[in-house]
Each structure stands twice: as C-alpha cells, then as structure tokens.
Sequence to fold (391 residues):
Amino acid sequence: MATISHWQADAPSVASSEALPSRCDVAVVGGGIAGVSVAYWLRQFDPSLDVAIIERATLAHGASGRNAGFLLQGTDADFARTVEERGPDIARRLWQFTQENRDGLIDALSEADISLTTSGSLTVAGDEAEDARLRRAAELLRADGVEVTYLSPDQANKRIGSSGLYGALHVAGGAMLHPVRTVRALVGHSGTRIVEHHAVRSIESTGDRVRLVTSGGTLEAGRIVLALNAYLPRLVPDLADRIRPVRAQMLATAPQPIILTQPVYSHEGYFYICQLPTGEVLLGGARHLHRDAEVGYDDTTTAPLQADLEAYLRRHFSGLAGAEVTRRWSGTMGFSSTGLPLFGEVSGVGKVWWVGGLTGHGMGYGFRMGRTVAAVVLGESDPFDSLFRVD
Ligand SMILES: Cc1cc2nc3c(=O)[nH]c(=O)nc-3n(C[C@H](O)[C@H](O)[C@H](O)COP(=O)(O)OP(=O)(O)OC[C@H]3O[C@@H](n4cnc5c(N)ncnc54)[C@H](O)[C@@H]3O)c2cc1C
Fold:
C-alpha cells in the first residue's frame, strides 16, 4: 500500500499545476529537490527561459517529500572516512559544495516558511571505531576552519538524553527543514510552469528539438533535463549500472516533551532521529539490517524493519520508547555507483541531460547540484562539474 510521509500529510498538495504546454525552452522532468533546483537555477541564469517541470504525481511526491529533512554538510560518510576514501582535496571540495548548498538554499528561501532550524547537527558514533573516526574528523575539519565540536560519549548522551551511544561530532552549520515546503517554495521562487500528474513515457529527437511523450500528451522542448533520481533507469535503461533504487523507511510519533533540538545521525548514518518543535519524533534507518529487502520501487513499510526502529528507541532513547507511533512511511532513494550525485548527457539523443544518484543525502546536495547542472545545460562551466559529471 502506498505510504504518505509526515511532511506530505502536513503540507497537502495544492492546486498549482498547469495544463501541458505544447512547447517550452527547457523541460525538467521530476519534481523533487534536484528537478526544482535545476529549474530554479535555469531561470536565475536566464530569466527569459520558458521552463516547465513535468512530474508524474505531485511536487515532492518522491524521496524529496519523504526524507528526514536533515540539511547536512559533507557526504553520507563521516569526513575522516571521506578523506581516507577520496583523498583530502576531493573531501574538501565536497564539503565546500554542501556548505554552498546549505547557505545558498537558506539564502534563496529566507522569506519562505520552510520550518528551518539552524542549531547545528550531531553525528553520533554507534561504536568505538566510529567514535575514533569522529574525533579524527573533528581535527581535520577544524584544521580547515570548519566550526565543529567533538563531544565525549558522556557529553553526547547527556546532550540528547540517550544512553549507550558513543562520542559525537557537532557541526554548527547543520540544519533541518520541511522538505515538502522547501521544494514548493523553490518552485514558487523560480517562476517555472508546473505540470503535475503527467508521467513521461519516452523521449524522441525531432531534429532541432526533443519531444517528450507523456501520459497526458506531448511536449516539444529545446532541451530536457531528466531529474528522476532512482527512476532514471526506467526511462534510460543504460543508466541501470550507474543508479539503483534503494528503499528507506521512517516512523513518526505523537508529540513528546522536547529532548532533541538538533538532527541526530547515528551508526554511520544508518539511523537518523530528530524532533520537531511541535514534539513529534521522526526516526528512520535500519536499512543495513535488511539490505536484501530494502531495494526496488515498492512504496511500503515492513514489520521487521519497523520493529528494528522501535528497538533502537528502546535501546538508546528509553524515554521515547513508549511513544505512540502515528505514521510509518517509505521512500525510494537513487544510490549511485560512486556514492556521489551524478549527471551527464543522454547518449544518442542530443539536448537531453540527466541528474540523479543523490543517495541518502539529496537535501545536502540538491540545490547546489541544480546550479551545476543548469550551468552546464546552458553551455557554461561550473567549478564543481568535474566532481559529478559522467559522459
Ligand atoms: C526515508 C528517507 C530519508 C532520507 N533522509 C534524508 C535527509 O534527512 N537528508 C538528506 O539530505 N537526504 C535524505 N534522504 C535522501 C533524499 O530524500 C534524496 O536524496 C533526494 O530527495 C533525491 O531527490 P531527487 O529530486 O533526485 O529525487 P526524487 O525526490 O525521488 O524526485 C524524482 C521525481 O521524479 C518523479 N518521476 C519519476 N518518474 C517519472 C516520470 N516517468 N515522469 C515524470 N516524473 C517522474 C517522481 O515522482 C519524483 O517526484 C532520505 C531519503 C529517504 C527515502
């Protein structure tokens, strides 16, 4: 059975959609954070462009409306591991990219109500080895001038009212937002057309333009950007070896007395928990305990994984363990072959670009990624394009 996230229920869809136009300059397919960010930046670079976002359901229907709302810096791995695996230069550039993502998004939406919390984020270790890496990450980041603090296990558990967790890294720039409102606000600020309930079925070249065949008619565009994340291989099968669908699940509780004022990412990001100012606790993760089951496109929750989420509460946040669970949901992420977002040109068609593979970190990448992709689509360069571009 299809699920609905806390955010989607909290911000029901509004009638913003237009009829499918017959022509536009650029069609962006997919109304998640990546698609709306590409559209936003296209119009920032050239306000005269007629840009249409084509979405098969409603804006933020996919992972962008089903996540935990964490706006973090760095990749989904801790900084020490990113340095080990990718080298210090790339690790630094990735941090800078996500810092620009955070700052740019907050700046662009400074007037919008996106329930933004900017009290920092905590990455908490689930064991001693992770604790040691977080201590190392703190040293490396401080040396680069990033505002971070390492908390000992005692300090960390005291800070978040938990037990049995190890040390933590507090990143001052970490933030939280309402992802559905964020996606909608970006569209509102971009002045693009929104066409919802139109699934794109195929793409054909017409010579100087490209034709999109949708469930509700056809559209000819000068250029197309496919921002479909996990769904890219369905339209472009050649991308199946670059991007694969991976499911993530969450739950929400009834309002509880406030104990968490920052988003908490623990056990190498395999668990994530936060509390809204209204008291609801949102908890997700446990995917690593169910790797074989948590793949594919099924929008459903499973009893064994949800039981592991509740076991996490009992083990580490006993004060929350009896809280009534009011909602459970799932979302489909697009995991990339490199662990980083990717973009490129669809081979053999011309004028068609794709972006996806935002993994479990798309709110941390998506807005800045939109800028990179929009620049390249318009024939400009971007300082970060070589980090993510595949051709
Ligand atoms: C449970 C969960 C928790 C997460 N927590 C976080 C977090 O706290 N912080 C973070 O940074 N990231 C998090 N993520 C990851 C993040 O949500 C994703 O990386 C990000 O939303 C991907 O954005 P996107 O725009 O690329 O893809 P999506 O949001 O999936 O957008 C793709 C869109 O394409 C549409 N579409 C598909 N096929 C078609 C078609 N044929 N025609 C037209 N439209 C189509 C879909 O309906 C969808 O709206 C989480 C993900 C999940 C599932």
